[in-house]
UniProtKB/TrEMBL annotation:
Family: Belongs to the cystatin family.
Record-linked PANTHER family: CYSTATIN 14A, TANDEM DUPLICATE 1-RELATED, CYSTATIN FAMILY MEMBER
Record key words, sorted: Protease inhibitor, Thiol protease inhibitor
GO terms for MF: cysteine-type endopeptidase inhibitor activity
Keyword check for Metal-binding: no
Domain of life: Eukaryota
Species of origin: Anabarilius grahami (Kanglang fish)
Gene Ontology CC entries for this record: cytosol
Protein name from the UniProt record: Cystatin-B
UniProt keyword Protein transport present: no
Amino acid sequence: MSMNMGWKEEEDASPDVQKFCNEVKASIEKKLGKKSIYNAINFRAVETKILYIAKVHVGNNECVHLKMSQSLPCYGGEVKLEQFQYPKSKEDDIEPF
């Protein structure tokens, strides 16, 4: 059985993905401390587009991989940080976790 579970291929980050990353920024800053840069680079989504993993540049060659979920619009559309992986580099591929 494939562990891919419907994850799409990696894509360049869109303004919507940056927006989702911004919505969980305070949660990440509590865990990692404030970072001077916070730019989404690329992402992967599940076919349903309710679960995302994004690579976010946080300074120098450091990145954090964010796993985020979004509730359905009828339930408010809230974006929630599920998990994160840190430290990561710009060269690290985004792998489902």
